[in-house]
């Protein structure tokens, strides 16, 4: 592993001078982001600002063009890094849920525990049932994703990610595909998770969630971090014009 | 007074029904049924086809089909995965193979591999079943590779991402998450490939098989030669239908069900 990056124990995620281009489209332009254990970082910004790409670079679903990503002291961008193993410690929740449609809710939660962590079926299912209880869906253990509402599917997806005992959770617009009345249940699960001390990076359009739950808000625009700080500062008293203009469009309805 | 559009459509339909029925009646009256029956469906000859047509000829057709299908499916899956690989030479190799074997008639492939290779190398096929089934499966695998690839590509991209984000390796995600979903999509088209294979086995008879390895078509053709009557071919055709019709009905049923589930 590279020694050039300074590794600090308390930092779960270190993103250093990260750049990502898709062809001639320069999506991320030198991102530096350092997240400590227990932080809840909400990333906000207009669509196309690179929020989701940043999140997807942190677990290497997108290969960064340059710069480094260090998660839990491992440099994921290093050629010798075992990405599969590193990803077990990084939970991810997607906008479109991406549950496995050919498996029940419980099987969705158990499959990676068994195939990746090598847990026994009984062990994986016990853990699965505990997590289903935690997201309030014990009675849906044997339901297939097609039989669940969007909000229920997303809660199962959160349980599936938690089953790997991750040290950090990434939420990529987890509530954007939901009907408005189903958003609250999912946000409540995320809020409880935050209160339990999980380190979270949350790309979201839910300003209420960002105000109330985030320990830090990061505003991105045009592939750079424009402004960051506690929600009281970034959301209630933004310093930068771009932040002000974005917030006035999102908040004033 | 002009008649309405719907009335005109109704009268047109009646006219077409009437003409069709008339055409059938006229043909039935013109044909010499006794002569036709004697030449194409003579009962004594029909009876003579049994039981050999089932115990030997149909059995051989089934053996060729199953060998061809099993080989085609295994190689087809391999070539489909190669076509989807991130490694370029794999993609090129698979694409070349698929284009070559889809572009050459099965008959030519059968002759080239069944006769050409033994002539060129002095090596001979150890087993007459393999001599026919291997060229058949090579061609089948080219078609199946494309079917399987389309099935895998029809699985949403988020499925692979979700599996990888849980720490699964690419092969593990393919086996556990992607291929089971792709299989559901490709069962109807693969069943169609199976029906095509049943019929394509008839070409294997050009390889000059032994009495024990005659397939249905060859059995019928030899029957025509020995009896100077077309009946054996008609019976062979009916046995083919007995195998293919249930399968095509099954495909239709599966497609109806998939359509209903998709709503």
TrEMBL record, chain A:
SUPFAM superfamilies from the UniProt entry: P-loop containing nucleoside triphosphate hydrolases
Domain ABC transporter: 13-247
One Gene Ontology molecular-function label: ATP binding
Gene3D superfamilies, sorted: P-loop containing nucleotide triphosphate hydrolases
Membrane topology, from the record: Peripheral membrane protein
Pfam families for this protein: ABC_tran (PF00005)
Compartment annotation: Cell membrane
Keywords noted in UniProt: Amino-acid transport, ATP-binding, Cell membrane, Membrane, Nucleotide-binding, Transport
GO cellular component: plasma membrane
Stated family: Belongs to the ABC transporter superfamily.
Protein's name in the database: Unannotated protein
Annotated organism of origin: freshwater metagenome
């Amino acid at each position: 592993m590279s020694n050039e990056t300074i590794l600090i124990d308390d930092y779960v995620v270190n993103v250093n001078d990260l750049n990502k281009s898709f062809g001639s489209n320069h999506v991320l332009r030198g991102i530096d982001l350092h997240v400590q254990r227990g932080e809840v970082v909400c990333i906000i910004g207009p669509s196309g600002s690179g929020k989701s790409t940043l999140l997807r670079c942190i677990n290497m679903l997108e290969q960064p063009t340059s710069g480094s990503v260090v998660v839990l002291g491992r440099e994921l961008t290093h050629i010798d890094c075992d990405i599969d193993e590193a990803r077990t410690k990084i939970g991810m929740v997607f906008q479109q849920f991406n549950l496995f449609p050919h498996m029940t809710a419980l099987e969705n939660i158990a499959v990676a525990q068994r195939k990746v962590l090598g847990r026994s079926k009984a062990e994986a299912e016990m853990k699965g049932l505990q997590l289903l209880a935690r997201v309030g869906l014990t009675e849906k253990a044997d339901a297939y994703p097609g039989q669940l509402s969007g909000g229920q599917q997303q809660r199962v997806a959160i349980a599936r990610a938690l089953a790997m005992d991750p040290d950090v959770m990434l939420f990529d617009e987890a509530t954007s595909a939901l009907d408005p009345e189903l958003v609250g249940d999912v946000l409540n699960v995320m809020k409880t998770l935050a209160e339990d001390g999980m380190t979270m990076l949350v790309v979201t359009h839910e300003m209420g969630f960002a105000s109330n739950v985030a320990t830090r808000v990061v505003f991105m625009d045009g592939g750079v971090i424009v402004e960051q700080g506690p929600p009281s500062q970034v959301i209630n008293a933004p310093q930068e014009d771009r932040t002000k203009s974005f917030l006035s469009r999102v908040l004033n309805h | 007074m002009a008649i309405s559009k719907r009335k005109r459509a109704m009268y047109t339909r009646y006219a077409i029904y009437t003409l069709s029925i008339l055409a059938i009646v006229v043909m039935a009256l013109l044909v010499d049924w006794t002569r036709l029956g004697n030449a194409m469906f003579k009962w004594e000859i029909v009876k003579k086809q049994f039981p050999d047509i089932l115990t030997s000829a149909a059995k051989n057709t089934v053996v060729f089909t199953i060998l061809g299908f099993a080989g085609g499916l295994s190689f087809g899956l391999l070539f489909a995965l190669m076509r989807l690989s991130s490694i370029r030479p794999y993609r090129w190799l698979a694409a070349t193979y698929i284009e070559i074997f889809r572009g050459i008639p099965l008959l030519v492939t059968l002759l080239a591999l069944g006769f050409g290779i033994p002539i060129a190398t002095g090596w001979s096929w150890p087993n007459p079943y393999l001599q026919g089934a291997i060229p058949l499966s090579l061609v089948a695998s080219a078609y199946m590779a494309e079917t399987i690839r389309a099935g895998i590509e029809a699985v949403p991209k988020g499925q692979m991402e979700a599996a990888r984000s849980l720490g699964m390796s690419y092969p593990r995600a393919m086996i556990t998450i992607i291929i089971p979903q792709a299989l559901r999509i490709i069962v109807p088209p693969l069943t169609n490939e199976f029906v095509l294979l049943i019929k394509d086995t008839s070409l294997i008879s050009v390889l000059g098989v032994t009495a024990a390895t005659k397939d249905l078509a060859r059995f019928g053709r030899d029957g025509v030669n020995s009896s100077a009557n077309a009946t054996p071919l008609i019976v062979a055709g009916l046995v083919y239908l007995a195998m293919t019709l249930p399968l095509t009905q099954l495909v239709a049923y599966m497609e109806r069900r998939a359509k209903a589930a998709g709503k």
